[in-house]
């Protein structure tokens, strides 16, 4: 009995730090490595996660004891794959298990390189990212290379073509270019969920740097993505990088000067880039929640069970954004509500008080049936919101119509004139000799 109590007490910290709707940032992170040397060579990146409260669990990718779930419950909130050469994961993990992990709403970081295995390529492809099919290919740029690159070998690239999104990369501008050395990839054109977080320059191409080009490269210019991000429909987030070296201490600390630029930066933008990007991937930024969806008639406070056509109503909802430590009011001018039955009968942009509350008022359409209040909000970098509440709308009862409807006055006049004419005709017919 005492042993069971000890096991329960050991699991309490695990349960308290796990992912919850009230605290959406990932806490328990499984890190799979090709070699434990990566733990020290990439320690700056790992330490930045630990300093923000993440609990990292390091294992070799082929460790036979690793598992993502036990007894139907996931043991981790996020997964980092720093094992580009792994041919087969250990334990119960495989490509299908990782994709199920993402389908369950968990987050993923995948780092590849020029030696990326078919397993890593398969996972990336399922996420909407296609690495160059040439196994020896690397991204080469004879114009945008880093000045410190080996003469003639321009595979060390200094890129500053970032995604234009403050919610993904933070509001502070990344001044220094990011160092990249690895394999390029393209985005699946049928997948609208994947975005280029860092792109190659127009002069870049993907090819084997040790052999002579005999045919046009399959990937060229700005169509080459160096780092991509995906937000799935279930709001799980994925980062795919074509370079494991990008996360290394050496690249974090290196000075950088882009070819053709007179400015030399004492430190590359890698650390700031991946710190900000990891905040987004792990839901420390751009995570929204909505609550208190309310509606009622104008002048009333309680929510009715049914509306009547042409009623005036008020609608409100509260939206907050997770800042990494607390929920803060979300302020925007593009949140809309639909009053919906088969199609929107009313579409209104909501006003806000700047404290997270959004509101509007409108008249119920002169159509009865079962309607829905729908708030469907999608914005680049933010988790999507989809809320709905059903409400029936009835017509007027027989005793609720106006006694005399102004629009019917001509008909009233016609009826009474007919009656008067009939009376006059009858009188004339009876008494006329």
Automatic annotation (TrEMBL):
Annotated membrane topology is: Single-pass type I membrane protein
InterPro entries referenced in this protein's UniProt entry, alphabetically: DDOST_48_kDa_subunit, OST48_MD, OST48_N
**Record field: transmembrane:** 409-431
- In this protein, which residues make up the domain named OST48 N-terminal? 28-281
**Classification via Pfam families:** OST48_MD, OST48_N
Any one Gene Ontology biological process term? Answer: protein N-linked glycosylation via asparagine
Q: Does the keyword Signal apply?
A: yes
Question: Where does this one sit in the cell?
Answer: Endoplasmic reticulum membrane; Membrane
Domain OST48 middle per the UniProt entry, residue ranges:
295-432
Q: Does the keyword Transmembrane helix apply?
A: yes
- Cellular component terms, GO, for this chain's entry? oligosaccharyltransferase complex
Q: Which residues form the signal peptide?
A: 1-18
Per UniProt, the keywords (alphabetical) are:
Endoplasmic reticulum, Membrane, Signal, Transmembrane, Transmembrane helix
Copy the pathway line from the protein's UniProt record. Answer: Protein modification; protein glycosylation
Q: What does this protein do?
A: Subunit of the oligosaccharyl transferase (OST) complex that catalyzes the initial transfer of a defined glycan (Glc(3)Man(9)GlcNAc(2) in eukaryotes) from the lipid carrier dolichol-pyrophosphate to an asparagine residue within an Asn-X-Ser/Thr consensus motif in nascent polypeptide chains, the first step in protein N-glycosylation. N-glycosylation occurs cotranslationally and the complex associates with the Sec61 complex at the channel-forming translocon complex that mediates protein translocation across the endoplasmic reticulum (ER).
Which family is annotated?
A: Belongs to the DDOST 48 kDa subunit family.
Listed under subunit, the entry gives: Component of the oligosaccharyltransferase (OST) complex.
- By what name is this protein known? Dolichyl-diphosphooligosaccharide--protein glycosyltransferase 48 kDa subunit
